[in-house]
Structure formats: structure tokens, C-alpha cells
Automatic annotation (TrEMBL):
InterPro entries hit by this protein: DNA_brk_join_enz (IPR011010), Integrase-like_cat_sf (IPR013762), Integrase_catalytic (IPR002104), Integrase_DNA-bd_sf (IPR038488), Integrase_DNA_bind_dom (IPR025166), Integrase_recombinase_N (IPR010998), Integrase_SAM-like_N (IPR004107), Phage_Integrase (IPR050808)
Record-level Gene Ontology MF annotations: DNA binding
Transmembrane segments: none
Listed name of the protein: Putative prophage CPS-53 integrase
UniProt family annotation: Belongs to the 'phage' integrase family.
Domain of life: Bacteria
GO terms for biological process, alphabetical: DNA integration; DNA recombination
Gene: intS_1
Lineage of the organism: Bacteria, Pseudomonadati, Pseudomonadota, Alphaproteobacteria, Hyphomicrobiales
Keywords, alphabetical: DNA integration, DNA recombination, DNA-binding
Amino acid sequence: MPKLSKRRIDAAKPGGKKYFLWDGELKGFGVVILPSGKKNFIVQFRTLEGRSRRLTLGLYGALTPDEARKLAIKALSETKHGQDPMADRHKLRRAPTVNDMMNRYITEYVELHNRPTTLKHVKWMFEKVIGPKLGSLKVASIKRKDILQIHTGLAKTPTKANHMLGYLSKAFNLAEMWEWRAEQTNPVRGVKKFKENARDRYLTNEELTRLGVVLDEAETEGLPWIVKATGRNARHVAKSPELKRAPVNEMAVKALRLLLMTGARLNEIISLEWRHVDFHIGTIALPSRKGDGRRPHPVSSAVMDILADLSKNRRSHFVLPRDTDPDEHVSREVMESSWRRIRHFAEIPDVRIHDLRHTVGTYAAQAGGNAFLISHLLRHSNIQVTDRYVSQDFNPIRLLSEAIGQRILEGMGKYQATDADTVNAPAQLPAPAYEDNGNQD
């Protein structure tokens, strides 16, 4: 039987059914000619267990006879050492992909141990970034260069890029535990995070005063229209639009006041329920950053006044119900749209809702609060070791909360001293150390 050569293979014509051409020098090496005209190199062998295998090496044309011969020699050599090239190939095909890893990571870890917002972020990152780039690749095949490439591609959004690294690092650690990768081979290890530009925007006294005026106006008269129509579209705008006013969602305005007075996160306030409010001891139940459940948190008397006012017309188990459905709380979309209008007229266009929390933290530091108290006021988790020393005596935190409440009310032109203020009154707040440009970090 002659050696397989290009001339011999080219001369083989397809028939009504497949047939084989075998090499005369290397036993088991051959070509299968299919009725369609395709010609595939194969190698046939027996495993040590005596099982007959036929492994396809590749398509003739994509491989030359010499290249296919080398692959056949390698496969036959592996069988002599107890390996099964076909079983290895099938195993590789069945090996989990990055898509499999991320889905299991989300189901078995993120959904059980992280906050809903983190779950949302991980799913978005998987669908928009990780999946399209790495999803179809095998978990065991991912190298550090693959991670570097996708991380570098997000260089313009360093925070997003670093979050992606965190999610992938955890997922690959779990993949090792699931035995989807060898131990200590996490490809994220050694990839340097980008430097993030921290944003610590907070309100100056002047900005706080303007915001107070606009909030009052929003609650009473509503805010003027913001007319963006120009050209031909402007003809559809009512006459004298500058005289027209539109109401601002009442629950949104109340929520913004509560955010300013507590330093809480947006979702914590809009999802607050009446069962979380204790008027007798002056607390509201707020969750920790890691979503470990709500626990009582002391707040200022100004906060309790806002809640008492809301309680007069209670129509839902939510403190801030949705206008169209009392069984749902006011939505983030309504909050954001209301805030855009309010900050426009308060002349603070760069201030986000979350910056109200930064404002509370900054005022707390200026009021003399130490890191321990501020971490509990804002419920940060980076000083968790101090939790064991915190009892149900809320007095230090209450004093700090009262000091911040006084500062906020003074800034909005609403604070009026009463006799009650002389009891456990906080120290005089120092003037903020900044210029009035509203852009301090």
C-alpha cells in the first residue's frame, strides 16, 4: 500500500458512500473521502482497554499530508502511554466555559451573599463586557493576557474596570474550588487595578441654602417649567412658559430631605417601611452596607419630624409610597427626574443624589466626629472590628446626628433654637474650611 501523498489524495473521487485511503507506512493513518467531496485526515487506534477509536485530525487542504502525519504520530504515541486522545478531546469539548462559570457564580454566590445592587452590577458586567469577550472560552484556558486585554479596554472607566476585576477574581477563585481550574492559577492575580479618582463632592453653605429654598418652593408652588424646545418645536410650547409651574413629586421631595438629614443611601430611604420607624426612641432601621439586614439607627429630631408629618396621611406600609401604586415605594426614576429639576434651580448641576451622603459625612467630620462615630453614622463596614464595643447606647451617635441635623437646617434657613436645644446640645460647629466654589474634593 503506497504512502499517502497529495497526488494520491487528489486523485480520490467521492462515491455514493464514504471510503478510506490508508497510509502504507504509518499504521492507522488515513483519509476518509465523503460523498460530499470533503476529505478528512484520520488516525485509527486501540486504547489499552482494547477500545477501537477513530480520531479526526483535520480537513485536507487545511492540513497537508505531512502536517497530518505528525499529528497522527503524536496521537499514536499518546495511546502507547495510556492516554486516549479522543476522550481528551471530548473532555475538552465538555469543559465549562466562562459563561458557565459566571452563571454559576451569580446563582451560587452573588444571589446568596451580595446586595441586590451588586447582583445588578455583576449581571450587567457579565452581559455587556465579560460575556461578549470571554464567554465562549474554556475556563481552564483563560490566561492573564486575556484579563489584561479586557481590563485595558475599560481604561476610560477605571472604576468599572476595577469592579470587573473584582468580580472575575472571585469567580475564578470559585472555579478553582469547583475543580474547573488548577489550584493557584487565578488569571486575575497580578493584574494591577487602575487608579480611581475619588469623588467627594459635598454642598457648601451657600449651596445648601439655595437647595433649601428650592425644596420649599417645590413642596408649595412647584417649580417653573424647563423649556428645551427650540426652532419649529418651540411653537408647541404654551405662551409665557416662564410663568408656568409644574409640581414636583411630594414623596421625592420628602425623600431628599431625609437623605440630607440622615446620610442614608437612596435605596435605603425609598424602601423604608413604617415598621422600620420607632417614634418612641427616635430610630429608623437601616441596613448595613453588606445587606446583613436592618437594625435600629438613631436619627435627629428633625428626621422624626419629617416622618411624623408623613405619618399623618399614611396610606401604605411604605413611608414613601408610589403615587400610582401604594404597594410600591417611590421609584428611583422618579427620584432622579425630580432631583434633576431641583438641582437645576438650586444651581448645583454637578451634584448627584449620592453627594448628599458625602455632605453628611463631611459635616460630621467638621462637627468633630471621629472615624468610629462617622463609620456608624454612615454604616460603613471598613471598621467592623469596632462593632463589638458598640452597645445599644446610641447617645454619642445621636448627638452627632443632632449636630448634623442642626447644621443642615441652619444651612437651609430653617433652624430656630428652642429651650430644648440647651439639653445635650452639641458643640458649636466650626465653619467649613473651603472656598465658596462648590468644587472641593
